[in-house]
Fold these 2 entries.
Entry 1:
Amino acid sequence: MDHQKTDAIVLRVVEFSETSCIVTMFSRKLGKISAIAKGARRKKNPYEGALDLIAICRIVFLHKSSQSLDILTEAKLERRFRSASRDLDRLYAGLYLIELLNLLTDEADPHEMLFDVACLAIARIDSDSSLKDALIEFEIRMLDLLGHLPMLTRCVGCGRERKTMNRVNFGLNEGGVICPECRSGKQNIISVSSEAMELLLRLTNHDEEKEQGPNLLSNHPAYAEVRRLVSKYILHLIGYPPRLQKYLGNL
Ligand SMILES: [Zn+2]
């Protein structure tokens, strides 16, 4: 049993007893963790808003080595998700982000860079910046950091380089583009336009010199097509649609 101190994003809170909750968090140091927060359901509790969804907090918890639950001993709010009470689209986007973190990460599997990327995305979603850009950039970056980024420059079947920027087949099962020779017999294929491929490639290129501008990605003519493709790809990866996906209609 040892005390652990780390920053964490609150992903899920479920009632456990009359006075306690079980909180699932994505932490910087230890990845996803679940811990019991004793007294969290009391009116006067020691956590003071730190355990609200999408909040970022500094936590101390007792890490149990056996099967029993970790115990949250301290949680200090570092960043409240302010849009929760004033902008439904931003709230849904924030809830979608934490749902993805919960679905695509495992307990005790730390991803420090993903934690930082998620904190940055939450700050963007919770500000006046483009919601569409913030969300799709986060999704692509998350897929990249977790090793799920689709192959776009080579055929996933034979490894040959994609020669043209014409319409290409994208295999959801295979996770990337498929050349005409490898196409036969494959299922769950989506035909992707050259404009969408261009935007996808731009999204997956994380060079610092990336062009910046207001609504740059979401103003792209193929944005809607890429949005649909990324949603389908994530759905396919998880095996079912994330609960919040249907609330992202405006995006
Ligand atoms: Zn091929």
Entry 2:
Amino acid sequence: MSTRSVRCEGLTKSFEGEPALDGLTIDVRPGEVLALLGPNGAGKTTTMRLLNGVLTPDLGTATVLGLDPWAQGTELRRRTGVLTENAGLDERFTALENLVTTAELRGMDRSAARVRAGELLERFGMGHRADARVQGFSTGQRKRVALARALLHDPELLYLDEPTSGLDPAATRDVVELIASLTAERGRTVVLCTHFLGEAGKLASRMAVLFQGRLHAFGTPDQLAADLWSDTEVRLDVGGPASTELLVALAAVEPVVQAVPTDDGALVRVRSADVTPSLVRACVAAGVDVHAVTPRARTLEDVYFEVEARAQAQGTDDGLGARPVAT
Ligand SMILES: Nc1ncnc2c1ncn2[C@@H]1O[C@H](COP(=O)(O)OP(=O)(O)OP(=O)(O)O)[C@@H](O)[C@H]1O
Ligand SMILES: [Mg+2]
């Protein structure tokens, strides 16, 4: 048995001669949330469609849940759940009918599907609209129904394309908690496309950053941060902006790289957080009280913006297009 839920190598797809995805190689581990990130048009949705077997690649190979997504697409889709960007519901049908029809396509028994569909609509706050036609639904209501539909047959692997866009704050929180519990408690695997980096930071164990169809970073935020930056930042709170004298003293501490004043002290760039005690000693020696010292951990958001900035710079600098900075 494969130790990966998804593996793909060199996935390449063009539309009308325009490359949408160029040589994508990634894997997804069972039980993880992998965040697929990148600006509009980067190739995220194309990746999901390829990996669910609804689109065939020009080049490349993939194994998803041990299956070939293109030769065994129907079998695969019985074990995957999909939330597409625009919900993709049939407007003429009611919420319940939309769910039951899909469940049957996925090989579920009709009466079992009705029961489960009812429960899921209830869970997503749509129980009272189960028998109403989708055409009258708001964006968020459609998304709730589509989420219920994605979970209907209790899939092992979920492709969630922007699951919280259009949802109100409470529904967003519920969906984030739901995704976390699907993986943590139920061992499900999730490929998540989102533009909400805070959400990705909360949920994802690893991130893949696409830019113009190419993979620019792939790994845990911590690994990627270590690859991207050789230094780290410490925030020193001394109750007011650091004096020039203190900044000079801080900059003299080995191996401080740079110290800049802030409203309440200084932001000190160091090669390693191990230097923190020396910074505190330098303050004390300068007769300055230290209120707080906070190492600033790099977040998924920091990593994303740095990768994007470097991808943009590479793309314009050498005319060769961008290359991965880490894999
Ligand atoms: N069916 C299609 N026909 C023609 N071009 C397509 C098709 N699907 C995708 N593309 C093109 O492929 C590229 C990647 O699109 P994709 O939908 O994968 O981007 P995305 O990363 O999901 O973007 P977004 O964040 O806006 O959802 C875009 O340039 C898009 O125009
Ligand atoms: Mg998309």
